[in-house]
Description:
By secondary structure, the first copy, chain A, is an alpha+beta fold. Chain A has 2 domains: 20-313, Distorted Sandwich (Beta-galactosidase, Chain A, domain 5), CATH 2.70.98; 335-720, Glycosyltransferase (Alpha/alpha barrel). Chain A has 18 helices and 31 strands. A 9-stranded antiparallel beta sheet of chain A has the order 1-9-10-11-12-19-16-15-14, covered by helices on one side. Chains A, B: Residues 777-806 are annotated as: Disordered.
Amino acid sequence: xxxxxxxxxxxxxxxxxxxxxxxxxxxxxxxxxxxxxxxxxxxxxxxxxxxxxxxxxxxxxxxxxxxxxxxxxxxxxxxxxxxxxxxxxxxxxxxxxxxxxxxxxxxxxxxxxxxxxxxxxxxxxxxxxxxxxxxxxxxxxxxxxxxxxxxxxxxxxxxxxxxxxxxxxxxxxxxxxxxxxxxxxxxxxxxxxxxxxxxxxxxxxxxxxxxxxxxxxxxxxxxxxxxxxxxxxxxxxxxxxxxxxxxxxxxxxxxxxxxxxxxxxxxxxxxxxxxxxxxxxxxxxxxxxxxxxxxxxxxxxxxxxxxxxxxxxxxxxxxxxxxxxxxxxxxxxxxxxxxxxxxxxxxxxxxxxxxxxxxxxxxxxxxxxxxxxxxxxxxxxxxxxxxxxxxxxxxxxxxxxxxxxxxxxxxxxxxxxxxxxxxxxxxxxxxxxxxxxxxxxxxxxxxxxxxxxxxxxxxxxxxxxxxxxxxxxxxxxxxxxxxxxxxxxxxxxxxxxxxxxxxxxxxxxxxxxxxxxxxxxxxxxxxxxxxxxxxxxxxxxxxxxxxxxxxxxxxxxxxxxxxxxxxxxxxxxxxxxxxxxxxxxxxxxxxxxxxxxxxxxxxxxxxxxxxxxxxxxxxxxxxxxxxxxxxxxxxxxxxxxxxxxxxxxxxxxxxxxxxxxxxxxxxxxxxxxxxxxxxxxxxxxxxxxxxxxxxxxxxxxxxxxxxxxxxxxxxxxxxxxxxxxxxxxxxxxxxxxxxxxxxxxxxxxxxxxxxxxxxxxxxxxxxxxxxxxxxxxxxxxxxxxxxxxxxxxxxxxxxxxxxxxx
Amino acid sequence: xxxxxxxxxxxxxxxxxxxxxxxxxxxxxxxxxxxxxxxxxxxxxxxxxxxxxxxxxxxxxxxxxxxxxxxxxxxxxxxxxxxxxxxxxxxxxxxxxxxxxxxxxxxxxxxxxxxxxxxxxxxxxxxxxxxxxxxxxxxxxxxxxxxxxxxxxxxxxxxxxxxxxxxxxxxxxxxxxxxxxxxxxxxxxxxxxxxxxxxxxxxxxxxxxxxxxxxxxxxxxxxxxxxxxxxxxxxxxxxxxxxxxxxxxxxxxxxxxxxxxxxxxxxxxxxxxxxxxxxxxxxxxxxxxxxxxxxxxxxxxxxxxxxxxxxxxxxxxxxxxxxxxxxxxxxxxxxxxxxxxxxxxxxxxxxxxxxxxxxxxxxxxxxxxxxxxxxxxxxxxxxxxxxxxxxxxxxxxxxxxxxxxxxxxxxxxxxxxxxxxxxxxxxxxxxxxxxxxxxxxxxxxxxxxxxxxxxxxxxxxxxxxxxxxxxxxxxxxxxxxxxxxxxxxxxxxxxxxxxxxxxxxxxxxxxxxxxxxxxxxxxxxxxxxxxxxxxxxxxxxxxxxxxxxxxxxxxxxxxxxxxxxxxxxxxxxxxxxxxxxxxxxxxxxxxxxxxxxxxxxxxxxxxxxxxxxxxxxxxxxxxxxxxxxxxxxxxxxxxxxxxxxxxxxxxxxxxxxxxxxxxxxxxxxxxxxxxxxxxxxxxxxxxxxxxxxxxxxxxxxxxxxxxxxxxxxxxxxxxxxxxxxxxxxxxxxxxxxxxxxxxxxxxxxxxxxxxxxxxxxxxxxxxxxxxxxxxxxxxxxxxxxxxxxxxxxxxxxxxxxxxxxx
Lengths: 806, 806
């Protein structure tokens, strides 16, 4: 019998400082979720946390950012401009596989004979110990296994994996095998495998579609113990090459052998281990991909082989040291301290770690909704990136935010084509995509979500405001702002009341669709129009290049100024969209707890017309466009919408938490904080197996900074209204602001603002609860936290939908 | 060279009295359209007007009402309650095929040798004459061909086809071949063929999907010259059997031979024809289908064989005579006289003929949108039936209307299941179906069109009002009324203003979707609720059976009375839906004529939010719920909506014509009348190849009776406000009203009302331009037509979209 110990999901005892995510036991029921949690990446290469031996798996995954195949979309009833193809993420060759077979000397039937022995497989034999640890400072996953085969041959195996942050194409694994009590014959096979089996698609419409055997072999190469495989995709026309280079340290008498079978290169190491012996195999893998029409297969093979060899030359200890150094530098800004709640301390570090490793500072790559941790949403980039992830990375790693915005800019041609196809103007960025073209197969909740345009524009404005990067603004920034603004100006219309309206769109909330004047969309479009006007005026040469004249700018300003803001005077609340508060209510009393998420139990026909909200929409508008609302409006709106928001989307908890904190409901804010922070570590949505929810993880940082820290930077003015949750003794976080690192520490005694890296002449101006402060490199500033005004009783959530109390 | 003469689409000279549709020449470019025009049917069997020889074809078609296969529906993004299977009409075995090969005595290479000779094919050889005539009184299609083969062998071929109105399962064809100037060796093959090739689906989303080889062979039988084929469908589980029985009359020396190959039974007749000789082959075909679990293959084969033999026993002249008698009886009520416009005289008779042959008076069969004339819309039944076709057939052939309503009643279980699935109450009838389940693959323009429920209820109420059929009301009628009303009561909601609202539905106009309070839907739902309340009160035992109590009835009445009616006070017009008149206008000035239909050139994102209307919606409400509007409102509404309706749907012209006539724009009404009447004869929408537009054809009768005759029967009160178009000297039509045939004749001298079949004591009460009249079997009544009030200038249509002027 093999043993299953329960997973240990909390930060644990004194020896564990909140920097390590540890799971013990085989935990076979949660394989998929564990693979996501233990995923490693560097914004270019992503390895899911699959077991070294590959099987059993929830879902294998070894991804390259942007590497994808396409599939046909067919519609029961097709329509004009319905996308006919969709990008789908597929794995590159899997270089993470190390399989082990064991036999005892007595049952070997001749060397290289018919029996390979018994494979290490957690489903068989006896598992004496099994532990995996994600070390958030070292940037590695370590695994220790103590296992006896069904025939009783016992081995200790440990592996260490990393995906190198400094070396973009490189990932590596060190695999160590020891015999425990008796000699064991072992065969260790390090595989490089293309077209690994992927489990079938589930019935859940939110899951990924699966393309089997997406890779066609183009070339292979062996050089001693090293190998290269080159494949291509048939429809997307991409070529992908992976090289593996090895180091083997083994007792005398071990044999090594490399061979190919179709779609697989294998290095096999075979020999006898006695107790005390140690077999160590280190694999250095390097990945590249390019359009088929670009670099040739041979050139790509040369390239990855050179990169793998360079990694081997640096050596595994060197890679580990460089990884640590890169993370130390990142954590200096990114670390969040939460004294008083070890579980959430760990969770928020876990969240930030995955954000840090999801993007790249160099080039023009973005971050898909699941990062490179799974194939959920087909690996697509959605508005999650600009709406949730970049608002964090702009503060923590602005180069990564810039890279992601450059990716949008690189796909401006496709967005312009899409706008023309939609009979609009400017650019219509895709609702979901990998390669830049719209891949949404349900337009009411896809192409109609035009707010993605404004989310991108907002991310540009925010990036420029936080960094002061005028060069970016003058180049890609102004292009993005102008072309997105042009869409709004064409799309909207003037009504008799003198207002500018945006009708027939879908806002963030996916339980309504095709509404008039979605408040979030209107306010974000207003910001987009004004931002484009400002940028075009500030950069007249760029404006001229884009054909912008004064009349066009005036048109944007007029539309932005006259943008309609739906408000219900009778109820004293803003409307999520025109008429929203007059829609029928949801019958919560007759909705059972097992009918959530509602979209799996009720038709859109019911959902769309009722006041039931999947995710923060108007509440998100109150966060992103904070200056458009008074404090009283925020309080009333928050209460009204909290009662109708079921949080069937993981995008909801974080903005709700921030607004709950702002309007004074700190306990509710804290419980919502826990929900967003634990989304994947506790698999709250039962969907983490498909990949991590990066927006939810980003939300954890946002709640700390914006909810507890009260951070806002509307119109480039940095302000804090800190509030310390009852549960916490200390909250600390940092952000980069115009070249400086600003550290904010909240304790019951007050808020401390400091610039730890700055020189004496450096200064940052900020506002603390309405007081203007100057923080300099010389002088940290501390101010007391004002007492919280009594916000009254907590607004009700829908029955059964309040977040769990902590 | 073969010759192409142009098609002759007008009623022609003095010899052609408007009862014959004649096409000459090969007309190969219009094959599909011609096949639809020359389609024959009897509401059970439908034969498209394919050439006897089968090829070339636009699309082969031999249909049985209700016989279908199913296909999987797959969605790029699936959703709750999205239908997973769709019914698709497929052909039964084709028994209409008679192929001819000719050779001269000199090129025969031995009898039965390798060469079959040259096939009669209009694409080869020389076509001296080719004529097809649909005789609307005889109920047959006659074809004459005078053709020389490429080698110069000349034959005259004539065929006569009928699908028997009195004999439900029977169709027949008589095929005659003569040599013209020299002896010719001929081989005539009468085929019975399953799984005939069907052309591929086009890109047009409105076209049918194609299932290849839908029939699986189960049994075959030969008996002398006669044969039977039995097949089944795999997914829908239906069994279909076709028998063919033959008579051959040939000169001496001819040989006959019957054989099978897979999926085909063939009777071959071979011999030499000398000038003056005549070969005559008559085929009698009989069709039945049944669920696979019902009648066995052998039993079904017995049944069809017996029916084919019985038809042969009656003989072709007997079938012709019975066909003529059935049509004489039908035309007595159904004929429409239009003196002054031979083209439209012919067109309206053509329209009525196709309506008459589309349905069956016996049983419980309905009429698909294309009848049995093509596979457009996958052969589905849509709301066209209750919305357009039954309003006519209730007057002309009420037994057929009853049969169609019984079909709805038979599928009440599926509609109840669907309502439960949609989390609603009562019954939710499908937007499109063959077998009774929802087959719509695009829910915003499918399942959201809940008005189909009210259309069915209205058809019940109208049928009962026109016939006085209390027995139907007490049985199926009350079931249909109650279950449809229950859906509205559950679906709607009360608002603070005390009104009852229906939000998030799609009305008739498919260029808007998911709107609040669609006026048509609301008024029809009001009628539905009140009709259910009345019926339940009148039939308490039926109400008790359905669990209806007084409180439920009171709820229906309250909802109906409080139903919200959207009205724009500022513009003084009703709104198609709440807020419609405040939506942005369509940019007609920048829409080119080749961008219609708009749905093929613009996304729904643009169409849905603008004031552009595909088809009559509010205007249809003014026809169907005439009493809900004042005359002044009708005039203002008509003008407002006429300017925004592009008529991209063939459902639009007829109701617009009726309302144009009512508000006094008779020239516009007449031009719209021509558009609906010529929809298929002139293939105005370029879509007639997929089958005839039965709703458009029904519209032709509706314009005569409701537009020119001013016929209304709101609340069971029969009224006429006749207006004679300038172009016409005389308009006459009849209708059945509570067991009587009422004939109405309009001339410049006045309107004459008579009961030609009634006895002296029989009477019908009606209103003529507000005057109450009693028409009895004794005494026709004539009243003058009042002068038309000046309605002012004709309201503009969208640029370029006014119907052609006659």
